[in-house]
Structure formats: C-alpha cells, structure tokens
Amino acid sequence: MVQLLADCLSEIFEHLEKDKFTLHSCLLANRLCCEISVRILWRYNWDYTIETYNTLISCLPNESKELLYENGIIIPSQTSKPPNQQPSQNLSANQYHIVTREIFKLFMNQISLKKLVFWQYSNIDFTFHHGAESYFKNLFELNCSSNLSSEFFYQLSQISHNIRSLIIEFENNISSGLSELIFVQKKLKYMSIIKTYNCKDLTDILSKLPDTLIKLYLSGGELDIPLSFIIKFSNLQELELSFDCAFKDFKKLQYVTFPHLQILKFEFKCPIHEELIKFLEYNGKNLKELYLGDDKNSINHTIAKLCPNLRKLSAGFKNHELETLKMIFFSCQYLESIKIWCGGSFLNEKDALDMIVNYSPKNICELNLYYLYDLKPELLPEELESFFISWKNRIPQKSLSLVITTSELNILDANKEYMEIIEKYIKSGIIKSFKS
Prior knowledge:
Blueprint: H1 2-14, H2 20-26, H3 31-41, H4 50-57, H5 62-70, H6 93-110, E1 115-118, H7 132-136, E2 141-145, H8 150-159, E3 165-170, H9 176-183, E4 190-195, H10 203-208, E5 215-220, E6 238-243, E7 263-266, H11 273-283, E8 289-291, H12 300-306, E9 312-316, H13 322-331, E10 337-342, H14 349-359, E11 366-371, H15 381-392, E12 400-405, H16 416-427, E13 431-435
C-alpha cells in the first residue's frame, strides 16, 4: 500500500517539475513527499536560499548535523511554518561550502543523478563522498567546463560509462582527465563542443570520441578545430557548425557520405560555395532540415535539385531570387516550415508572402520572417491582412504558425494596428500561434 502511494505521488509530482514553489512546499509535507519531491527538484538548476537550506538541513543525518554544529552553523528546529517564515542566519563562505557539501552527500544517499551541470567556480568534489558510485552510475547528461579538476574527471570516468549527452565549454585549460572520461563512454549520442578561448590543441579529445554519436554541435569564434574527425561518425543524424569566421577545413567533408544525416545547420558562416554544393550532392537527398546562415554566395538554386525531401528550410533569398524560391516550392513538396530573410538585399515581405500563399506546398504550416541586423519590417498593415485573407482561402486550409524575428525585441507588439490584425486572425483560427 505504501509503495502504491509512493508511485501515485511520484506520478503527480512529475507534472509539477517546473513548478518549483509547489515542489518546495511538498518538502515540508512529510518524509515520503520530501523524498519524492527532492528527486525532481535536484534535476534542475535552482538557487539555494537560506530558507531552502533550513528545510534540507533538517533532513540531514545526525553525523552531518554534528559537523555543522562543530562549525558554528545553527541547525533549524522542526517547524510546520512555510520556508519563507523560517529564521535565517548569515553564513560565511566556508560555512556555505560545508552545508552544500553535506546536502550533496544527502542526495547521493537518496537518488541516482541523471543530469549534472558543473562549473569551475563550484568547489564541491562529489566523487570523494561515500555513495558516489550509485549516485553517478546512471548519469546520462553532463554539462561542464574543460578546466574542472583532473581528479574530478578521472573519478567520474571510473563510475559513469553511460553518458548520452556531453556538453563541454572549452576554456583556456583542458584537464587531463577529460580525455579519459570521453574515452570510456560507450553510448554517447550527443556531443556539444563550445570553444570560448584559444585553448590548446583539441586533437586528443576529438580522437577519443566514440563513433556512436548521432548529434554533433561545434561552436566558436574561430574555426581552428580540424573537421576531419567528423568523418568517422557514420551514424550522424544532426550536424550543426556555428562559427563567425570563414570555413577553412570543410573540404575534407565534401565527398563524405553520411547516410543517416537529416539535419544540417550553419548558424553563422557557411562553407565555401563549391564545397557545400558537393557535400549536398552526397547528402542532400536525405536531409529533412537545412539551415543556412550568412551565405554570401547563395546556393538556393541547387537546394531544389539536391534537397527534395526537406521539411524545414532557413535561407536568405536575394531580391533577384523570387523565381528560385518558387522553384524550391515546386521541388520540395514535403516542406512544412520556412524561415526567410527579409529586407535590404533580401526579398521584401510582400513579394515573399505573395510567393508563399500562391506557390508553397500544401504542407506549409510555419513561417518565420527574419530581419537581419537592424532591418525593420516594412510590410503595410493592409498587405499583412491581404496575406491572411489569401491564406484563409487556400486549399487545403491549414492554420499558420507565424514568427517575425527582428533585432529589436517586440517591435510589432508596440504597433497597435499590426497586433489588432494578428489577434483578429488568431481568434478566427487562421493563425495558430504568433511570436515576435
């Protein structure tokens, strides 16, 4: 009966995972509610207050409470008052560290950690505590910086072999234990390499990555990462390269076939025109999503030929490429979502909307008008309404999710006439959702 109650409460609390206030209240209800809610709360990054500490401290074992007492930390008495009415105390940095460490030890004895976000400024070393093996055994996601202590990475490599997602921000120092941690992973699916400093050569790290990867994200100000290491990931489904500078090493990938690749994204700069086209000749047919960033030498005319199975497309069409957009609509009949750059040297909104309403595939249900840099919408309210009327008359009729992205936040929200038109067609069901 007790187990049945625990299972029911667990199911209920799972639906409160983003309602921190309610989950905090559950900590005080009784021991069972506390045990279940703590597991959910600890999945996410949330700031400790003195009141939260008071509640958790009351749950610590006697051994930990004695340690706190010896270090001059007041242990709150049991109370039914809500946390915001608990008495508080000022903790020194060392006392704060001690309390946090003992709370971590409490968690280690109660739960199995699934996700860990851990940065250099935190000086808690989990792995030295009793119970760390069971605590980290089922770790699935790790988000950390490269300059954590080598001992932390070495210890973790002895315990956690089933990490699925690894997000690493590479700073000016790379701990030697990081390479070992990566090497022992046998089920790694997602790898994100965020390069924030000109750190030393990443060759050793990259060589340790297992060929089990299906998603890879590379980001940095400069592209000095040798892209040839990507070749071995034959199961790759998603590839995102986000760099501010021109590509210098993409030519090593242009003739490589990734039979499972479905999503290709360049957030900022794109590879050299000829190299990207050659890559799409080998991989474009399987692509479901294609995102092109600052593509100065447009390859739009080849998308229709090389990527006929796209569901999502993000690209900039120049003023003279209106017919190219029509060609893509005719060829990419599965297209459901399109993000079009507007203004300046790109298509004006009216021409783009006319093309979309008259020639886009029947599956289109999401439209994003994107304004680069400081460009602002120039579409007249009556032109916007004309588009919605025409969209209403399309066959088959589909509700449209509309996104208008500008560098100036909420620029359309301040335009009363625009918003009245949009709200009118939201109420009529023509617009499914709107975001600016």
